[in-house]
């Protein structure tokens, strides 16, 4: 029996989760929301997390009805992510570990998502599509590692969506990706956008620049261009949102299908914040059904960054015998998914 | 590898007293794990003198020194707040804990 407390704060969400043998005891979270047109910066995000984190720890222990002595391990996000917010989680985790004399474990953020997705959905050995504001990877498990078969070669798909939301000044509440999704539902007018799949990899920076020009034609005037008649451009924001989703989600479906074919896999698991998107889930489900496979996805309680996923991944590590010296309890902005030895899986 | 500091660096020594040597040691361990970002060219050395945490900063530039000290204080305050809220010394125990439970993993819940 392993009871784990997890601390997650690698981006603009700060969350604390408590889990015991696969049973969710607490999962509390706070989101740092910036005004429309602005992204969250590391310093301000860390300030928000510092103000919220101790209250969240206390409320999670109350919700779980536990004393500190009931905990077996404290887990925190070691990386990847933004350094100042990561540091907030790490410092609190270290301090609690020493105060309560409880072992400390650093968890990879991506593996937290994967293990939480596997637990909630019951998927055994799926091809994993991990899509969020900071990561875009196609992952499959093999020989004690979560192998990265394909990934973005520049910005994450969620980053592309978030920055486009900034361009058209969409609200960041509850999240820019969610607001793009809602706006896209009111249009079915497709605009042709660059489709940039490179084998198993994808690229989103070109699409972002292209659609930025569509959204704001007057901005960034190309001085070399001869003055032409202004193009007839009656695209609405909904049209742009719809087309952006159709294009980038089709790209994600393609690389996922290619990985399924390579691995002979019959299951797909979508994790990460963009995995909340129902249109992405629908497109992926269509592909899976055509291949005779099955799609697994979770709702926003677990898709979006949360402390519970760190607690669960950490509990799995702890149960399989992983221990971390206190001197190694630093944070790192880059922490590749395949760097972690998956000692808790035997297959 | 620590970056090279010029012969006449800008320096600052900060002494932080704690209630007990144990709390000072906790802060020393918690705050000593992280290295300063390499490109800042700042050297940070932590040491303990009983219940006082001593931090020595050295830097080429005053602005880097100021940034490093500001960041350190943010981390220190968070560590202290955590100790204040969850440490043993808290009289009114919202989360009761006694020394007898330290290190044990007792649980009254049935599996």
Verbal overview:
The complex is a heterodimer of chains A (347) and B (111). Chain A is built from ten helices and twelve strands. Chain A is α/β, with parallel strands linked by helices. Chain A folds into two domains: 137 residues, Nucleotidyltransferase, domain 5 (2-Layer Sandwich), CATH 3.30.420; 181 residues, ATPase, nucleotide binding domain (Nucleotidyltransferase, domain 5), CATH 3.30.420.40. Chain A has a five-stranded mixed β-sheet with strand order 3-2-1-4-5, sandwiched between helices. In chain A, helix 2 links the parallel strand 4 and strand 5. The two termini of chain A are 22 Å apart. Chain B is α+β, with helices and mostly antiparallel strands and 111 residues long. Chain B has a domain of 71 residues: TATA-Binding Protein (2-Layer Sandwich). Chain B is 33% helix and 22% strand. Chain B contains two helices and three strands. A three-stranded antiparallel β-sheet of chain B has the order 1-3-2. In chain B, a hairpin with a 2-residue loop joins strand 2 and strand 3. In chain B, helix 1 packs across helix 2. The longest helix of chain B is centred in the middle third of the chain and has 25 residues.
How are the SSEs ordered, and which strands pair?
The complex is a heterodimer of chains A (347) and B (111).
Chain A: E1 3-8, E2 13-20, E3 23-31, H1 42-64, E4 73-79, H2 83-100, E5 104-108, H3 109-121, E6 127-131, E7 136-142, E8 145-151, H4 157-167, H5 176-184, E9 197-198, E10 201-202, H6 205-215, H7 237-263, E11 267-271, H8 278-290, E12 294-297, H9 300-303, H10 307-319
Parallel strand pairs in A: 1-4, 4-5, 6-11, 11-12
Antiparallel strand pairs in A: 1-2, 2-3, 6-7, 7-8, 9-10
Chain B: E1 10-17, H1 21-32, E2 42-49, E3 52-59, H2 62-86
Antiparallel strand pairs in B: 1-3, 2-3
Helix pairs in contact in B: 1-2
